[in-house]
Amino acid sequence: MDYKTDKPIYLQIADFVCERVLQGIWKADERIPSVRELSVTLAVNPNTIVKSFEYLESKQIIFQKRGIGYFVESNGLQRIREMYKAEFFNEELPNLFKKMKWLDISMKELMSHYYN
Amino acid sequence: MINIQDLNFHYKANQPVYSGLNLELHKGNIYGLLGENGVGKTTLLKLISGLLFPTKGQCSTFDFEAKKRYPEMLEKIYFLPETYTLPKIKMSEYVKLYASFYPKFDHNKLAEYVNIFGLSNTKKLSEFSHGQQKKWLLSFGLATNTELLMMDEPTNGLDIPSKGLFRQLLAGAMDDQKTIIISTHQVRDLENLIDPIIILEYNQVLLNHSIDEISQKLKFVLRENQSQNALYTEPAMGGFWCVEPNSDSVESKVNIELLFNAAVNNKEFFLKLFIQK
């Protein structure tokens, strides 16, 4: 890619939610903070939070219980892992390989760091 | 919620501020009202609240003709102007005098805001520093709990921690029955909160669209070199920020400052892209 962009805010918030789940802070079938709570914590327009939640719902990571709030799907963690894995292999790893080439770092050298 | 149709306004007969202005605002939004100095942002807020009268055309607020200044309309509006003079009384006396104009005034919230901003009732409002006066009016304004809240440069005069507090209080005060209009030059103070964005230009509206709609039509990219089709570029660390037509449907973060600069430098293009049907 010959250019960089920042992710739209609604996707940055989706990442924020996903990372909480990956870290085990928010667990399967547990309620996550409400639109209003997240809006205040992050100082972001409530409508943007709604869009993030709709996005996460469409990815089957969270679900809504009417009048109660949003919950983490029972296999939400697995879905996030799959999504992030794809992102890791498609975007982050090629970047890592590019840097390794620039800096003349061999696989062997990398492995030695991994096992340390 | 607010409907402006074919509105003309002038302060001096041969110097129109608006001729044929059309604008529609809907509830449940925090509008960011942007525009260069002197395009009439404050004038617009005053027309909406009935403080000024159109010379031709209509401005209706909650289905009331704004210039009629019906109490039923006024009790639903709080307007925090950019400049003000506060009376020689304490906060508690100010509340006694003015809170009764707002039927949904929330005294508990006011106490909370005053506490968060660290204001104390020992001094008279006129003896407060500029920043403290601003904190007081923001607290009072949010506590009025009106359906329409208009603020002209609300972050002017606030120190850095207070700007953060204000953002959180504003987010917490918002609900889908309310409309908030914030006129500002300090877009970084309120980034991620103002959406939709209105860009006002001499005599016309260049943009009145949600961040979502803007990011569908434009992309904001950092390139090593300035692109040919960029509407606006700005040197930055690592290259140039470019605002370009979003021909390949890239999802990028809308940078409001870049958006504004792109708009005022490409008025015709923006009108075609956003306003004209």
Explain the overall architecture.
By secondary structure, chain A is mainly α. Chain A has a single domain (9-115), classed as Winged helix-like DNA-binding domain superfamily/Winged helix DNA-binding domain (Arc Repressor Mutant, subunit A, Orthogonal Bundle). Chain A is built from 5 helices and 3 strands, in the order βαααββαα. A two-stranded antiparallel ribbon of chain A has the order 2-3. The longest helix of chain A is centred in the C-terminal third of the chain and has 28 residues, at 76-103. Chain A is elongated and about 55 Å long. Chain A starts with a strand and ends with a helix. With 277 residues, chain B is an alpha/beta fold. Chain B has 2 domains: 2-207, Rossmann fold (3-Layer(aba) Sandwich), CATH 3.40.50.300; 210-275, no CATH class. Chain B contains 10 helices and 13 strands. A 6-stranded mixed β-sheet of chain B has the order 6-7-8-3-9-10, with helices on both faces. A 4-stranded antiparallel β-sheet of chain B has the order 2-1-4-5, with helices on one face. The longest helix of chain B is centred in the middle third of the chain and has 14 residues, at 130-143. The chains are: A mainly alpha (116), B alpha/beta (277). The A-B interface holds A 2-9, 11-12, 36, 39-48, 51 and B 28-30, 164, 167-168, 170-172, 174-176, 192-195, 210-212, 215, 219-224, 238, 242, 250-255. β1 (3-4) of chain A pairs antiparallel with β11 of chain B, so a sheet runs across the interface.
Write a short abstract of this structure.
Chain A has five helices and three strands. By secondary structure, chain A is mainly alpha-helical.
